[in-house]
Protein backbone atom coordinates (compact mmCIF):
# COMPACT_ATOMS: atom_id res chain seq x y z
CA UNK A 1 0.00 0.00 0.00
CA UNK A 2 1.45 3.37 -1.02
CA UNK A 3 2.07 6.07 1.58
CA UNK A 4 -0.30 9.07 1.70
CA UNK A 5 1.07 12.06 -0.20
CA UNK A 6 2.80 14.71 1.93
CA UNK A 7 4.01 17.89 0.20
CA UNK A 8 5.61 20.94 1.78
CA UNK A 9 6.07 24.61 1.07
CA UNK A 10 9.34 25.88 2.52
CA UNK A 11 9.86 29.64 2.05
CA UNK A 12 12.77 31.65 3.44
CA UNK A 13 11.46 34.56 5.58
CA UNK A 14 13.72 37.19 4.02
CA UNK A 15 10.91 39.09 2.28
CA UNK A 16 7.27 38.92 1.30
CA UNK A 17 5.58 35.95 -0.34
CA UNK A 18 6.49 36.78 -3.94
CA UNK A 19 4.43 35.61 -6.88
CA UNK A 20 6.77 32.73 -7.82
CA UNK A 21 6.68 31.42 -4.27
CA UNK A 22 2.90 31.72 -4.23
CA UNK A 23 2.67 29.52 -7.34
CA UNK A 24 4.99 26.93 -5.77
CA UNK A 25 2.79 26.93 -2.66
CA UNK A 26 -0.30 26.60 -4.86
CA UNK A 27 1.07 23.60 -6.80
CA UNK A 28 2.01 21.84 -3.53
CA UNK A 29 -1.43 22.61 -2.09
CA UNK A 30 -3.31 21.48 -5.21
CA UNK A 31 -1.39 18.21 -5.43
CA UNK A 32 -1.90 17.45 -1.73
CA UNK A 33 -5.63 18.21 -1.90
CA UNK A 34 -6.02 16.34 -5.22
CA UNK A 35 -4.51 13.17 -3.75
CA UNK A 36 -6.19 13.48 -0.36
CA UNK A 37 -2.80 14.06 1.25
CA UNK A 38 -1.29 16.83 3.39
CA UNK A 39 0.68 20.00 2.75
CA UNK A 40 3.08 21.12 5.47
CA UNK A 41 4.60 24.57 5.99
CA UNK A 42 8.25 24.97 6.96
CA UNK A 43 9.87 28.35 7.50
CA UNK A 44 13.50 28.03 6.40
CA UNK A 45 14.92 30.59 8.79
CA UNK A 46 18.47 29.30 9.19
CA UNK A 47 19.86 32.55 7.71
CA UNK A 48 19.49 34.46 10.98
CA UNK A 49 20.84 37.76 9.61
CA UNK A 50 18.24 38.01 6.82
CA UNK A 51 15.27 36.19 8.38
CA UNK A 52 12.68 38.42 10.06
CA UNK A 53 9.47 37.89 12.01
CA UNK A 54 7.79 40.47 9.75
CA UNK A 55 8.58 38.39 6.66
CA UNK A 56 7.30 35.21 8.34
CA UNK A 57 4.07 37.01 9.23
CA UNK A 58 3.73 38.36 5.65
CA UNK A 59 4.22 34.86 4.16
CA UNK A 60 1.60 33.36 6.47
CA UNK A 61 -0.84 36.23 5.79
CA UNK A 62 -0.28 35.92 2.03
CA UNK A 63 -0.96 32.18 2.05
CA UNK A 64 -4.03 32.64 4.24
CA UNK A 65 -5.42 35.32 1.91
CA UNK A 66 -4.94 33.00 -1.08
CA UNK A 67 -6.77 30.25 0.81
CA UNK A 68 -3.74 27.93 0.85
CA UNK A 69 -4.14 26.31 4.25
CA UNK A 70 -1.54 23.89 5.59
CA UNK A 71 -1.70 20.90 7.92
CA UNK A 72 -0.33 21.18 11.44
CA UNK A 73 1.76 24.02 12.85
CA UNK A 74 4.44 25.80 10.76
CA UNK A 75 7.88 24.31 11.45
CA UNK A 76 10.90 26.56 12.07
CA UNK A 77 14.02 25.12 10.47
CA UNK A 78 16.27 27.07 12.87
CA UNK A 79 14.65 25.38 15.88
CA UNK A 80 15.78 21.99 14.53
CA UNK A 81 19.51 22.79 14.39
CA UNK A 82 20.35 20.19 17.09
CA UNK A 83 18.69 17.45 15.01
CA UNK A 84 20.65 18.57 11.91
CA UNK A 85 23.91 18.28 13.88
CA UNK A 86 22.91 14.84 15.18
CA UNK A 87 22.39 13.52 11.62
CA UNK A 88 25.70 15.01 10.41
CA UNK A 89 27.55 13.22 13.22
CA UNK A 90 25.73 9.98 12.40
CA UNK A 91 26.90 10.32 8.79
CA UNK A 92 30.50 10.51 10.06
CA UNK A 93 29.95 7.38 12.19
CA UNK A 94 28.55 5.57 9.14
CA UNK A 95 31.67 6.48 7.16
CA UNK A 96 29.55 8.56 4.77
CA UNK A 97 31.05 11.91 5.87
CA UNK A 98 34.27 13.18 7.42
CA UNK A 99 35.86 16.05 9.31
CA UNK A 100 37.71 18.54 7.12
CA UNK A 101 40.30 20.86 8.68
CA UNK A 102 41.28 22.80 5.56
CA UNK A 103 41.85 26.52 6.22
CA UNK A 104 40.40 29.31 4.09
CA UNK A 105 43.86 29.91 2.64
CA UNK A 106 44.18 26.23 1.64
CA UNK A 107 40.72 26.23 0.09
CA UNK A 108 41.54 29.34 -1.94
CA UNK A 109 44.79 27.75 -3.12
CA UNK A 110 42.81 24.67 -4.27
CA UNK A 111 40.44 26.90 -6.23
CA UNK A 112 43.28 28.82 -7.86
CA UNK A 113 45.05 25.60 -8.87
CA UNK A 114 41.80 24.21 -10.35
CA UNK A 115 41.23 27.41 -12.35
CA UNK A 116 44.79 27.34 -13.63
CA UNK A 117 44.29 23.75 -14.82
CA UNK A 118 40.93 24.58 -16.43
CA UNK A 119 38.91 22.61 -13.88
CA UNK A 120 35.86 23.79 -11.89
CA UNK A 121 37.02 25.36 -8.59
CA UNK A 122 36.15 22.66 -6.07
CA UNK A 123 37.44 21.15 -2.85
CA UNK A 124 40.00 18.46 -3.72
CA UNK A 125 39.21 15.92 -0.97
CA UNK A 126 42.44 16.46 0.98
CA UNK A 127 40.89 15.35 4.31
CA UNK A 128 38.67 12.64 2.83
CA UNK A 129 40.86 9.73 3.95
CA UNK A 130 43.17 11.38 6.45
CA UNK A 131 43.12 10.53 10.11
CA UNK A 132 41.67 13.26 12.34
CA UNK A 133 44.75 12.81 14.58
CA UNK A 134 46.64 14.74 11.91
CA UNK A 135 44.40 17.75 12.48
CA UNK A 136 46.13 21.06 13.21
CA UNK A 137 45.59 22.50 16.68
CA UNK A 138 42.92 25.11 17.24
CA UNK A 139 41.09 24.51 13.94
CA UNK A 140 37.35 23.80 14.15
CA UNK A 141 36.48 21.35 11.36
CA UNK A 142 33.55 21.29 9.00
CA UNK A 143 31.82 18.02 8.12
CA UNK A 144 31.81 17.07 4.44
CA UNK A 145 29.88 14.28 2.75
CA UNK A 146 31.84 11.54 0.96
CA UNK A 147 30.36 11.98 -2.49
CA UNK A 148 30.87 9.04 -4.88
CA UNK A 149 33.65 9.79 -7.36
CA UNK A 150 32.35 7.65 -10.16
CA UNK A 151 29.03 6.98 -11.84
CA UNK A 152 25.95 9.19 -11.92
CA UNK A 153 23.20 10.39 -9.66
CA UNK A 154 19.90 10.14 -11.51
CA UNK A 155 16.82 12.24 -10.66
CA UNK A 156 13.53 10.81 -11.92
CA UNK A 157 11.70 14.13 -12.05
CA UNK A 158 7.92 14.28 -12.59
CA UNK A 159 8.25 17.47 -14.65
CA UNK A 160 11.80 17.49 -16.06
CA UNK A 161 11.98 13.76 -16.79
CA UNK A 162 15.16 11.78 -16.14
CA UNK A 163 18.05 14.10 -15.26
CA UNK A 164 21.58 12.72 -14.86
CA UNK A 165 24.42 14.29 -12.87
CA UNK A 166 28.02 12.94 -13.11
CA UNK A 167 29.11 12.28 -9.51
CA UNK A 168 32.55 13.76 -10.19
CA UNK A 169 30.82 17.17 -10.51
CA UNK A 170 29.08 17.00 -7.12
CA UNK A 171 32.22 17.18 -4.89
CA UNK A 172 32.44 16.62 -1.14
CA UNK A 173 30.18 19.47 -0.11
CA UNK A 174 29.80 20.72 3.47
CA UNK A 175 26.85 19.48 5.56
CA UNK A 176 27.89 21.04 8.90
CA UNK A 177 29.88 24.29 9.22
CA UNK A 178 32.75 24.83 11.67
CA UNK A 179 30.36 26.63 14.06
CA UNK A 180 28.21 23.46 14.08
CA UNK A 181 25.43 25.12 12.08
CA UNK A 182 23.91 23.06 9.24
CA UNK A 183 24.11 24.08 5.61
CA UNK A 184 20.85 24.63 3.73
CA UNK A 185 21.53 21.53 1.63
CA UNK A 186 21.71 19.32 4.71
CA UNK A 187 18.93 20.90 6.82
CA UNK A 188 16.40 20.55 3.99
CA UNK A 189 16.98 16.81 3.65
CA UNK A 190 16.79 16.12 7.39
CA UNK A 191 13.61 18.18 7.73
CA UNK A 192 11.92 16.63 4.71
CA UNK A 193 12.72 13.14 5.99
CA UNK A 194 11.60 13.81 9.56
CA UNK A 195 8.40 15.53 8.38
CA UNK A 196 7.52 12.52 6.22
CA UNK A 197 7.56 14.50 2.95
CA UNK A 198 6.85 12.17 0.03
CA UNK A 199 6.78 14.71 -2.83
CA UNK A 200 9.07 17.74 -3.24
CA UNK A 201 7.54 20.30 -5.63
CA UNK A 202 9.71 23.40 -6.11
CA UNK A 203 11.26 25.70 -8.69
CA UNK A 204 13.64 24.23 -11.27
CA UNK A 205 16.39 26.52 -9.95
CA UNK A 206 16.70 23.81 -7.25
CA UNK A 207 17.29 21.02 -9.77
CA UNK A 208 21.08 20.95 -9.22
CA UNK A 209 20.45 20.81 -5.44
CA UNK A 210 18.38 17.68 -5.99
CA UNK A 211 21.44 15.62 -6.91
CA UNK A 212 23.42 16.68 -3.84
CA UNK A 213 20.42 16.19 -1.55
CA UNK A 214 19.88 12.71 -3.00
CA UNK A 215 23.41 11.83 -1.85
CA UNK A 216 22.45 12.72 1.74
CA UNK A 217 19.31 10.56 1.57
CA UNK A 218 21.35 7.63 0.32
CA UNK A 219 24.09 8.18 2.90
CA UNK A 220 21.47 7.86 5.64
CA UNK A 221 19.65 4.95 3.99
CA UNK A 222 16.48 7.03 3.67
CA UNK A 223 13.88 6.87 0.90
CA UNK A 224 14.32 9.67 -1.64
CA UNK A 225 11.05 11.63 -2.11
CA UNK A 226 9.44 11.99 -5.52
CA UNK A 227 10.70 15.23 -7.05
CA UNK A 228 9.02 17.68 -9.39
CA UNK A 229 10.93 20.80 -10.42
CA UNK A 230 8.56 23.34 -11.94
CA UNK A 231 9.68 26.00 -14.44
CA UNK A 232 10.31 29.55 -13.33
CA UNK A 233 8.03 32.43 -14.30
CA UNK A 234 9.28 34.93 -16.87
CA UNK A 235 7.94 38.31 -17.91
CA UNK A 236 5.78 38.79 -21.00
CA UNK A 237 8.98 39.65 -22.93
CA UNK A 238 10.59 36.31 -22.01
CA UNK A 239 13.12 37.87 -19.64
CA UNK A 240 13.53 36.75 -16.02
CA UNK A 241 10.65 38.02 -13.91
CA UNK A 242 11.38 41.38 -12.29
CA UNK A 243 9.27 43.93 -10.43
CA UNK A 244 8.27 45.65 -13.66
CA UNK A 245 6.90 42.30 -14.90
CA UNK A 246 4.97 41.51 -11.73
CA UNK A 247 7.55 39.96 -9.36
CA UNK A 248 5.81 41.56 -6.41
CA UNK A 249 4.61 40.28 -3.08
CA UNK A 250 1.16 38.72 -2.88
CA UNK A 251 0.03 41.67 -0.74
CA UNK A 252 0.61 43.96 -3.75
CA UNK A 253 -1.91 41.95 -5.77
CA UNK A 254 -4.42 42.23 -2.93
CA UNK A 255 -3.89 46.01 -2.98
CA UNK A 256 -4.36 46.03 -6.78
CA UNK A 257 -7.82 44.55 -6.27
CA UNK A 258 -7.42 40.98 -7.50
CA UNK A 259 -9.59 38.26 -5.99
CA UNK A 260 -7.64 35.46 -4.26
CA UNK A 261 -9.36 32.72 -6.29
CA UNK A 262 -8.71 34.61 -9.55
CA UNK A 263 -5.01 34.98 -8.70
CA UNK A 264 -4.84 31.25 -7.87
CA UNK A 265 -6.58 30.48 -11.18
CA UNK A 266 -4.08 32.59 -13.10
CA UNK A 267 -1.04 31.20 -11.25
CA UNK A 268 -2.22 27.62 -11.81
CA UNK A 269 -2.36 28.33 -15.55
CA UNK A 270 1.26 29.53 -15.51
CA UNK A 271 2.86 26.27 -16.54
CA UNK A 272 -0.09 23.92 -16.04
CA UNK A 273 -3.20 23.41 -18.13
CA UNK A 274 -6.33 21.32 -18.32
CA UNK A 275 -7.40 21.18 -21.95
CA UNK A 276 -8.60 24.57 -23.12
CA UNK A 277 -10.02 25.59 -19.73
CA UNK A 278 -8.87 29.10 -18.85
CA UNK A 279 -11.25 30.01 -16.03
CA UNK A 280 -11.51 27.50 -13.18
CA UNK A 281 -12.90 27.35 -9.68
CA UNK A 282 -10.68 26.20 -6.82
CA UNK A 283 -12.67 22.94 -6.67
CA UNK A 284 -12.05 22.30 -10.37
CA UNK A 285 -8.31 22.94 -10.00
CA UNK A 286 -8.13 20.48 -7.10
CA UNK A 287 -10.06 17.88 -9.12
CA UNK A 288 -7.98 18.25 -12.29
CA UNK A 289 -4.44 18.95 -11.04
CA UNK A 290 -1.76 16.42 -11.92
CA UNK A 291 1.90 17.32 -11.38
CA UNK A 292 2.90 15.43 -14.55
CA UNK A 293 0.85 17.92 -16.59
CA UNK A 294 3.13 20.83 -15.67
CA UNK A 295 5.15 22.08 -18.66
CA UNK A 296 8.94 22.06 -18.73
CA UNK A 297 9.24 25.50 -20.32
CA UNK A 298 9.13 28.79 -18.44
CA UNK A 299 5.71 30.43 -18.19
CA UNK A 300 5.17 34.10 -19.07
CA UNK A 301 3.42 36.47 -16.70
CA UNK A 302 0.84 38.70 -18.41
CA UNK A 303 -1.03 41.35 -16.41
CA UNK A 304 -3.70 41.76 -19.10
CA UNK A 305 -4.61 38.07 -18.93
CA UNK A 306 -4.66 38.18 -15.12
CA UNK A 307 -6.97 41.21 -15.25
CA UNK A 308 -9.29 39.51 -17.75
CA UNK A 309 -9.53 36.34 -15.62
CA UNK A 310 -10.14 38.46 -12.53
CA UNK A 311 -13.00 40.29 -14.27
CA UNK A 312 -14.62 36.98 -15.18
CA UNK A 313 -14.32 35.73 -11.59
CA UNK A 314 -15.92 38.95 -10.35
CA UNK A 315 -18.86 38.61 -12.71
CA UNK A 316 -19.21 34.90 -11.88
CA UNK A 317 -19.31 35.61 -8.14
CA UNK A 318 -22.64 35.88 -6.40
CA UNK A 319 -23.42 39.45 -5.35
CA UNK A 320 -23.17 38.45 -1.68
CA UNK A 321 -19.80 36.74 -2.13
CA UNK A 322 -18.35 39.66 -4.09
CA UNK A 323 -19.65 42.14 -1.51
CA UNK A 324 -17.99 40.15 1.28
CA UNK A 325 -14.69 39.97 -0.63
CA UNK A 326 -14.83 43.68 -1.42
CA UNK A 327 -15.46 44.68 2.22
CA UNK A 328 -12.65 42.40 3.46
CA UNK A 329 -10.22 43.74 0.88
CA UNK A 330 -11.33 47.40 1.06
CA UNK A 331 -8.83 48.37 3.82
CA UNK A 332 -5.96 47.21 1.59
CA UNK A 333 -7.05 49.17 -1.53
CA UNK A 334 -5.67 52.68 -2.04
CA UNK A 335 -7.82 55.08 -0.01
CA UNK A 336 -9.90 52.16 1.27
CA UNK A 337 -8.70 52.25 4.89
CA UNK A 338 -9.88 55.87 5.23
CA UNK A 339 -13.27 54.97 3.71
CA UNK A 340 -13.73 52.10 6.17
CA UNK A 341 -12.72 54.33 9.09
CA UNK A 342 -15.21 57.06 8.16
CA UNK A 343 -18.03 54.87 6.81
CA UNK A 344 -21.38 56.14 8.12
CA UNK A 345 -24.27 53.87 9.05
CA UNK A 346 -26.16 52.68 6.01
CA UNK A 347 -23.26 52.96 3.54
CA UNK A 348 -22.51 49.22 3.69
CA UNK A 349 -26.08 48.57 2.58
CA UNK A 350 -25.67 51.06 -0.28
CA UNK A 351 -22.51 49.29 -1.46
CA UNK A 352 -24.25 45.91 -1.29
CA UNK A 353 -27.14 47.35 -3.31
CA UNK A 354 -24.76 48.74 -5.94
CA UNK A 355 -22.74 45.52 -6.43
CA UNK A 356 -24.85 44.05 -9.31
CA UNK A 357 -24.35 47.17 -11.44
CA UNK A 358 -20.74 47.76 -10.38
CA UNK A 359 -19.40 44.28 -11.10
CA UNK A 360 -20.49 44.36 -14.75
CA UNK A 361 -18.10 47.27 -15.42
CA UNK A 362 -15.10 46.34 -13.23
CA UNK A 363 -12.17 43.98 -13.81
CA UNK A 364 -10.63 44.55 -10.36
CA UNK A 365 -11.84 45.60 -6.92
CA UNK A 366 -9.94 48.87 -7.42
CA UNK A 367 -12.14 49.56 -10.45
CA UNK A 368 -15.19 48.49 -8.44
CA UNK A 369 -14.20 50.95 -5.69
CA UNK A 370 -13.77 53.66 -8.29
CA UNK A 371 -17.22 52.87 -9.71
CA UNK A 372 -18.68 53.11 -6.21
CA UNK A 373 -17.17 56.57 -5.78
CA UNK A 374 -20.59 58.23 -6.10
CA UNK A 375 -21.65 56.53 -2.83
CA UNK A 376 -18.75 58.04 -0.88
CA UNK A 377 -18.93 61.47 -2.56
CA UNK A 378 -19.98 64.36 -0.31
CA UNK A 379 -22.02 67.39 -1.34
CA UNK A 380 -21.27 69.66 -3.03
CA UNK A 381 -19.83 67.20 -5.56
CA UNK A 382 -16.49 67.71 -7.26
CA UNK A 383 -17.09 67.39 -11.00
CA UNK A 384 -14.99 65.85 -13.74
CA UNK A 385 -14.47 68.34 -16.54
CA UNK A 386 -16.62 66.43 -19.05
CA UNK A 387 -19.41 65.97 -16.49
CA UNK A 388 -19.43 69.68 -15.70
CA UNK A 389 -19.73 70.37 -19.44
CA UNK A 390 -22.99 68.39 -19.58
CA UNK A 391 -24.71 70.75 -17.14
CA UNK A 392 -25.69 73.46 -19.63
CA UNK A 393 -28.58 75.88 -19.04
CA UNK A 394 -30.85 73.68 -21.17
CA UNK A 395 -29.83 70.60 -19.19
CA UNK A 396 -30.51 72.38 -15.90
CA UNK A 397 -33.99 73.33 -17.13
CA UNK A 398 -34.70 69.65 -17.84
CA UNK A 399 -33.31 68.69 -14.40
CA UNK A 400 -35.61 71.24 -12.76
CA UNK A 401 -38.60 69.52 -14.35
CA UNK A 402 -37.25 66.10 -13.36
CA UNK A 403 -36.64 67.26 -9.77
CA UNK A 404 -40.30 68.25 -9.46
CA UNK A 405 -41.49 64.98 -10.99
CA UNK A 406 -39.25 62.83 -8.76
CA UNK A 407 -40.25 64.83 -5.66
CA UNK A 408 -43.88 63.99 -6.37
CA UNK A 409 -43.34 60.23 -6.40
CA UNK A 410 -45.22 58.36 -3.70
CA UNK A 411 -42.84 55.36 -3.87
CA UNK A 412 -39.10 55.47 -4.66
CA UNK A 413 -38.56 52.27 -6.63
CA UNK A 414 -36.58 51.23 -9.69
CA UNK A 415 -39.80 51.13 -11.73
CA UNK A 416 -41.23 54.45 -10.52
CA UNK A 417 -38.01 56.45 -10.92
CA UNK A 418 -37.37 55.01 -14.40
CA UNK A 419 -40.94 55.88 -15.44
CA UNK A 420 -40.49 59.44 -14.12
CA UNK A 421 -37.23 59.97 -16.04
CA UNK A 422 -38.72 58.61 -19.27
CA UNK A 423 -41.85 60.76 -18.84
CA UNK A 424 -39.68 63.83 -18.25
CA UNK A 425 -37.81 63.21 -21.53
CA UNK A 426 -41.09 62.89 -23.37
CA UNK A 427 -42.55 66.01 -21.76
CA UNK A 428 -39.38 68.01 -22.50
CA UNK A 429 -39.39 66.67 -26.08
CA UNK A 430 -35.79 65.38 -25.84
CA UNK A 431 -34.22 61.95 -26.20
CA UNK A 432 -33.74 59.91 -23.02
CA UNK A 433 -29.96 60.51 -23.13
CA UNK A 434 -30.52 64.29 -22.84
CA UNK A 435 -32.08 63.64 -19.43
CA UNK A 436 -29.98 60.67 -18.31
CA UNK A 437 -26.56 62.21 -19.07
CA UNK A 438 -26.99 65.48 -17.07
CA UNK A 439 -28.76 63.46 -14.35
CA UNK A 440 -25.74 61.13 -14.10
CA UNK A 441 -23.43 64.16 -13.89
CA UNK A 442 -25.59 65.75 -11.18
CA UNK A 443 -25.73 62.55 -9.11
CA UNK A 444 -22.13 61.31 -9.49
CA UNK A 445 -19.97 64.16 -10.82
CA UNK A 446 -18.93 61.84 -13.65
CA UNK A 447 -19.91 60.79 -17.14
CA UNK A 448 -19.78 57.07 -16.35
CA UNK A 449 -21.44 55.12 -13.55
CA UNK A 450 -23.64 52.09 -13.00
CA UNK A 451 -27.08 52.34 -14.60
CA UNK A 452 -28.62 55.71 -13.73
CA UNK A 453 -31.78 54.14 -12.30
CA UNK A 454 -29.61 51.94 -10.07
CA UNK A 455 -27.79 55.07 -8.89
CA UNK A 456 -31.10 56.72 -7.95
CA UNK A 457 -32.11 53.69 -5.86
CA UNK A 458 -28.69 53.28 -4.19
CA UNK A 459 -28.49 56.97 -3.21
CA UNK A 460 -32.12 57.02 -2.10
CA UNK A 461 -34.76 59.76 -2.39
CA UNK A 462 -33.32 62.36 -0.03
CA UNK A 463 -29.72 62.30 -1.31
CA UNK A 464 -30.71 62.04 -4.99
CA UNK A 465 -33.07 65.03 -4.82
CA UNK A 466 -30.52 67.04 -2.83
CA UNK A 467 -27.75 66.41 -5.42
CA UNK A 468 -30.05 67.39 -8.31
CA UNK A 469 -31.17 70.53 -6.42
CA UNK A 470 -27.52 71.56 -5.91
CA UNK A 471 -27.25 71.93 -9.72
CA UNK A 472 -30.38 74.06 -10.03
CA UNK A 473 -29.15 76.85 -7.74
UniProtKB/TrEMBL annotation:
<comment type="subunit">
    <text>Monomer.</text>
</comment>
<feature type="short sequence motif" description="'KMSKS' region">
    <location>
        <begin position="240"/>
        <end position="244"/>
    </location>
</feature>
<comment type="function">
    <text>Catalyzes the attachment of glutamate to tRNA(Glu) in a two-step reaction: glutamate is first activated by ATP to form Glu-AMP and then transferred to the acceptor end of tRNA(Glu).</text>
</comment>
<dbReference type="GO" id="GO:0004818">
    <property type="term" value="F:glutamate-tRNA ligase activity"/>
</dbReference>
<dbReference type="InterPro" id="IPR001412">
    <property type="entry name" value="aa-tRNA-synth_I_CS"/>
</dbReference>
<keyword id="KW-0030">Aminoacyl-tRNA synthetase</keyword>
<keyword id="KW-0963">Cytoplasm</keyword>
<dbReference type="GO" id="GO:0006424">
    <property type="term" value="P:glutamyl-tRNA aminoacylation"/>
</dbReference>
<dbReference type="InterPro" id="IPR000924">
    <property type="entry name" value="Glu/Gln-tRNA-synth"/>
</dbReference>
<dbReference type="GO" id="GO:0005829">
    <property type="term" value="C:cytosol"/>
</dbReference>
<dbReference type="Pfam" id="PF19269">
    <property type="entry name" value="Anticodon_2"/>
</dbReference>
<dbReference type="InterPro" id="IPR004527">
    <property type="entry name" value="Glu-tRNA-ligase_bac/mito"/>
</dbReference>
<dbReference type="InterPro" id="IPR014729">
    <property type="entry name" value="Rossmann-like_a/b/a_fold"/>
</dbReference>
<feature type="region of interest" description="Disordered">
    <location>
        <begin position="113"/>
        <end position="137"/>
    </location>
</feature>
<dbReference type="GO" id="GO:0000049">
    <property type="term" value="F:tRNA binding"/>
</dbReference>
<feature type="binding site">
    <location>
        <position position="243"/>
    </location>
    <ligand>
        <name>ATP</name>
    </ligand>
</feature>
<dbReference type="InterPro" id="IPR020058">
    <property type="entry name" value="Glu/Gln-tRNA-synth_Ib_cat-dom"/>
</dbReference>
<feature type="domain" description="Aminoacyl-tRNA synthetase class I anticodon-binding">
    <location>
        <begin position="333"/>
        <end position="471"/>
    </location>
</feature>
<dbReference type="GO" id="GO:0005524">
    <property type="term" value="F:ATP binding"/>
</dbReference>
<dbReference type="Pfam" id="PF00749">
    <property type="entry name" value="tRNA-synt_1c"/>
</dbReference>
<keyword id="KW-0436">Ligase</keyword>
<feature type="compositionally biased region" description="Basic and acidic residues">
    <location>
        <begin position="113"/>
        <end position="133"/>
    </location>
</feature>
<comment type="similarity">
    <text>Belongs to the class-I aminoacyl-tRNA synthetase family. Glutamate--tRNA ligase type 1 subfamily.</text>
</comment>
<protein>
    <recommendedName>
        <fullName>Glutamate--tRNA ligase</fullName>
        <ecNumber>6.1.1.17</ecNumber>
    </recommendedName>
</protein>
<dbReference type="InterPro" id="IPR033910">
    <property type="entry name" value="GluRS_core"/>
</dbReference>
<feature type="domain" description="Glutamyl/glutaminyl-tRNA synthetase class Ib catalytic">
    <location>
        <begin position="5"/>
        <end position="307"/>
    </location>
</feature>
<dbReference type="InterPro" id="IPR020751">
    <property type="entry name" value="aa-tRNA-synth_I_codon-bd_sub2"/>
</dbReference>
<dbReference type="InterPro" id="IPR045462">
    <property type="entry name" value="aa-tRNA-synth_I_cd-bd"/>
</dbReference>
<dbReference type="InterPro" id="IPR049940">
    <property type="entry name" value="GluQ/Sye"/>
</dbReference>
<keyword id="KW-0547">Nucleotide-binding</keyword>
<keyword id="KW-0067">ATP-binding</keyword>
<keyword id="KW-0648">Protein biosynthesis</keyword>
<dbReference type="GO" id="GO:0008270">
    <property type="term" value="F:zinc ion binding"/>
</dbReference>
<feature type="short sequence motif" description="'HIGH' region">
    <location>
        <begin position="11"/>
        <end position="21"/>
    </location>
</feature>
<dbReference type="InterPro" id="IPR008925">
    <property type="entry name" value="aa_tRNA-synth_I_cd-bd_sf"/>
</dbReference>
Amino acid sequence: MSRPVVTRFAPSPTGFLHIGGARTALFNWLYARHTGGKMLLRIEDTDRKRSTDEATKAIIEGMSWLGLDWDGEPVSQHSRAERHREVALEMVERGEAYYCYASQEELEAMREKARAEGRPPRYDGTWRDRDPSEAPEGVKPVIRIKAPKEGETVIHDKVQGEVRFPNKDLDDFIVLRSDASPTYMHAVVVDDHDMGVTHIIRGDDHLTNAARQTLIYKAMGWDVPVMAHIPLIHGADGAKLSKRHGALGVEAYRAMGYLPEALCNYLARLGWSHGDDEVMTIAQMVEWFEIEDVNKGAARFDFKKLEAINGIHMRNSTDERLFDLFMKQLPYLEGGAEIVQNMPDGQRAQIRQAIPGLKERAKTLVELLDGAGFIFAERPLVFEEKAAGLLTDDARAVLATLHADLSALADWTLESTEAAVRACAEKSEVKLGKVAQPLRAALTGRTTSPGIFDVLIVLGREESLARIKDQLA
